[in-house]
Design a protein that fits this description.
Subunit structure: Homodimer.
Helix content: 40-55%
GO cellular component, one term: bacterial nucleoid
Largest sheet: 3 strands, antiparallel
Shape: rod-shaped
Order of helices and strands: HHEEEH
Pfam families: YbaB_DNA_bd
Structural class: alpha+beta
Number of domains: 1
CATH class: Alpha Beta
CATH superfamily: Nucleoid-associated protein YbaB-like domain
Protein name: Nucleoid-associated protein GIY30_20940
Number of helices: 3
Strand content: 5-15%
Subcellular location: Cytoplasm, Nucleoid
Distance between the termini: 48 Å
CATH architecture: 2-Layer Sandwich
Length: 123
């Protein structure tokens, strides 16, 4: 007699490690939850880049949006606009570097966990 196909036979529990696929699927789900949590933390983070010892600061979130720019009036000189432009670019570059560091801090441990002998992951 034919028995109906039971997917738990492939992916279901089994005790004492009878089915390693169940453990792998649970681990993948846990990693997915950790990844989503890390992405949410990054998106909610406020990051500030600066240039000229704080004369120009640029604030943004982890998703790439710039939310504020602050320019110290000391640096505003109508005869030297280029310096102000360079300071704004420097602050934006610093903001980008700090965002990347934040993403590496939050996502780095997860990327390392993807290895597990699967070619191309976590390498």
């Amino acid at each position: 007699m034919n028995q109906p196909f039971d997917p738990s036979a492939l992916f279901g529990g089994g005790e004492g490690g009878e089915n390693p696929m169940a453990g792998l699927l649970a681990q993948a789900q846990q990693m997915q939850e950790q990844l989503l949590s890390a992405q949410n933390e990054i998106a909610a983070a406020e990051v500030t880049g600066s240039a000229g010892n704080g004369l120009v600061t640029v604030t943004g979130n982890g998703t790439g949006e710039v939310t504020a720019v602050t320019i110290d009036p000391k640096v505003v000189d109508a005869d030297d606009v280029e310096t102000l432009q360079d300071l704004v670019l420097g602050a934006l570059a610093d903001l980008s570097t700090k965002r990347e560091a934040l993403a590496q801090e939050k996502m780095g441990p997860l990327a390392g966990g993807l290895g597990g002998g699967i070619p191309g992951l976590g390498q």
